[in-house]
Amino acid sequence: MNGFNTEQLFGTLDAIKETPEIAKFQFRANNKWISGGHNRSTIKGFYGGCQEDISRNKSFVFDNSEPPILLGNNEGANPVEFVLHALAGCMTTTMMLYASTHGIEVESVESKLEGDLDVQGFLGLDKTVRNGYQNIGISFKIEGNLSDVQKQELLQFTNNSPVFDIVTNKVPVNFSLQQD
Amino acid sequence: MNGFNTEQLFGTLDAIKETPEIAKFQFRANNKWISGGHNRSTIKGFYGGCQEDISRNKSFVFDNSEPPILLGNNEGANPVEFVLHALAGCMTTTMMLYASTHGIEVESVESKLEGDLDVQGFLGLDKTVRNGYQNIGISFKIEGNLSDVQKQELLQFTNNSPVFDIVTNKVPVNFSLQQD
Fold first, then answer.
1. How much of chain B is helix, strand and coil, in % rounded to 5?
2. Sign of CA dihedral B42, B44, B47, B52
3. Among residues of chain B, what percentage have pLDDT more than 90?
């Protein structure tokens, strides 16, 4: 349903109920500075289901950069745009996963996101302005044989999204220098 | 310095001090569900410097997906991995921007990130477990003709990063259905 193998989905839920340890994941990324505001991440391995994952034959590679107005040459989207991408994707996947476990079939989902950011904060020019997004708006267009009540239910499912939690709540970030 | 045009950099800082309005940005993304945990974002236009940006000839396109253990086929990195990519890139760019305004020349920067996530929260199997990352670790390897004090200073610069703020603090996210 909705592109999920529901037999596998319910099987996974049962397996986690029996052995909660398999629910613990560690995701990873490596990043390397190239020049100015341009840098590159490689993403491949992760831990989950009590083992190192070996399903990926090659790494995902993504470049962060900046547009000219932010002193770059558009070698990639910028980091705060990647946050919008992650948020949209996670809220959508969460909606569709919950839709599938609740037996709601959906035809199409699209979303538009807008994030407001005043760079005076980040540049240290005005300490009263926060460094990150002041707010993010996301609007969904959901289509299918669905009542208004079901569409509202689908919308509420998105709040279980991990990235929604990461963005709307606080995550501790420990930063350090690697020892030589 | 460090790949930044410092004349342009200081010019930008002066321009914002004179006209704070140009510091207001709105970044955007559009996302479309494909199937199951697979969806695609397109990112192109944004508002900043008191106008719509026209520097990008084509959109950036990124796919979110999941590995088999999370019911996908690795059509893309997953959303929480994109968060690590965004965080690494933003902290690195911020470090290098501040290094440049402080006259510190750096040869290379690499970082490794790890994020711990227990999917029992997200799946609604254990309400005591949060849905997003429980914590994120990021370690930097910085090289150049630098003292230990300077390396620590560079490390502290990363805390001004917009994505660091977004992840470690709360951002309000307004979600809604598009009206037909």
1. 35, 30, 35
2. negative
3. 99
Contact assessment for residue A66 and residue B93, using Cβ atoms and an 8 Å cutoff: yes
Question: What is the C-alpha separation between A136 and A161, in angstroms, rounded?
Answer: 15
Residues of chain A predicted below pLDDT 70: 180
pLDDT tens, position by position, B116-152: 999 999 999 999 999 999 999 999 999 999 999 999 9
Indicate yes or no: CB of A120 within 8 angstroms of CB of B3: no
What is the mean pLDDT of the segment spanning B157-162? 98
Residue B28 and residue A113: Cβ atoms within 8 Å?
yes
The Cα–Cα gap between B55 and B44 comes to 9
Q: How far apart are CA A74 and CA A68, in angstroms?
A: 7
One DSSP character per residue, B84-139 reads HHHHHHHHHHHHHHHHHHTT---SEEEEEEEEEEEHHHHTTS-TTS-SS-SEEEEE
Residues forming beta bridges with residue A150, ordered by sequence position: none
Which helix (H) or strand (E) is A155 found in, with range?
A: helix A148-157
Of B43, B119, B168, the CB nearest to A25: B119
Instruction: Encode B67-77: b = buried (16+ Cβ within 10 Å), e = exposed.
Output: bebbbbebbbb
Instruction: Name which of A56, A92, A133 is nearest B39 (Cβ-Cβ).
Output: A92
Quote the ipTM score: 0.98
Radius of gyration of chain A (CA): 19
Residues 37-56 of B with CB under 8 A from A: 37-39, 41, 43, 46, 48-49, 53, 55-56
Q: Which residue of B has its CA nearest to A29?
A: B113
| Partner-chain residue, chosen from B12, B39, B89, that has the shortest CB–CB distance to A79 | B89
